[in-house]
Fold:
Amino acid sequence: MLGRLADRVRELEVRTRPEHPDLTAALQRRWEQLPAHVRTPQQMLGRRTAGCEGTHGVFPRCDLACTPCYHSREANRVRVDGAHTVREVDRQMALLRELRGPGQNAQLIGGEVTLLDPDDHAGALRAMIARGRKPMSMSHGDFDYAYLEALALDPATRQRRFAHLSFAGHFDSMMFGRRGIRRVRDERELNPHRRRFCEHFQRLEREHGVTHYLAHNMTVTPRNLDQVPGVIRDCRDMGFRMFSFQPAAFIGNTARWKDDYRAFSTDEVWARIEEGAGGRLHWRALHIGDVRCNRTAYGAYAGERYVPLLDEDDPRDAAWLQTFVAAFGGMDFAAPPALLAARLARAFAGRPAALPGLAGWARRFAARAGGTRALVRDRPRAITFVMHAFMDARDVRPAWELLEQGVMSDDPRLRETQERLQACSYAMAHPEDGRLVPACAQHSVLDPLENLRLAEELPLVPSAADR
Ligand code: SF4
Structure:
């Protein structure tokens, strides 16, 4: 009895810590492994997050045809098999939990997630949650409300089986085969489909109380670069909380490479994102990995005004970021109210300077938004802008091979690729050898072989033994 009570107290003590001890250890390891050039005061890898995670080889198939497509040519020769998906997702997540601690964002990705039966999709999400991940399903968004409802509700009781769902919808005019618009001439034609995607989730929340977080993903090529501002302006109020842009890279299925994707720079993409956002985006305020891979700008709209969370030119905001990280570390703020209150109390008790720091930051944020009255009148809506620039397979392959041998290249281009791979913020787990691999290396080097093997294991036409 006393032993059980002591266990409960110990468990409560750990749960109410701002940062779980396993995460503290994982962050420290991550920080120590990072190359020197990214160990900056603005760096969040190894201090606030261990990085993003994604699944691979769990449902490679997709029913759209995109140019470019990051999946290898063999991906569509693998059948969707729910038992395989749930089993492999669980194995990959177990390794991520072991190496990266709890509470990290993980994407259920690899093909088209809604080709999974809703129960298998739910099983995969459950496995991710059970392993301490915060899952997000990555989809082309071409599914009906009935699918979403079937995913969210227990089929036996019709009660919700998830209180919250996170989805990223990938929409751009280089995608072919979407129902109702098989070929798209410009981005604007997709807006009804983007709206429909958001409305499914709004309806789910109205009818069943399942809340949501929606991201909008878009590949950028010379064909749609100039349409980026219009997409943001048209879709800003649809319900997306994040707009993520991926300048196209030469990875995956070579048959789907159409343009000179290097005809523009990432600076040009970012300029178009800022144009659409209607304000300067302060991506230098904090970094997630290597800035040649990622730019992230946190902020909110107060009415029509875009307000950055941190002003990259204001040293007081830079100082607040350091205080924030010291006080909260990798704390998960999306906790039930009582638990959150306990964690906040312990964080402030451990770092009392965070309280006046928070007040100062709140004053500056309100001033940027046009004053407290403006904030009360136009309740701010948080929207994050992201640019993620994958690298070309022809660079990643040799760079990765050399890294595997422990050799840093003298060639400036390969050297840069290696530095970025070492600071990667988006990893995939390989339980068979206990390793985490950057998504660029996964897609450029490992996917083709993996999918060939899967095509034998899970052929499109099931073998007699499978039937
Ligand atoms: S190495 Fe590739 S997958 Fe990793 S953060 Fe950079 S672009 Fe993304």
In short: The pocket of iron/sulfur cluster is lined by residues 289, 293-294, 388-391, 420-421, 424-426, 438-440 (CB under 6 Å). The first strand starts at residue 52 and ends at 54. The CA atoms of residues 222 and 263 lie 7 Å apart.
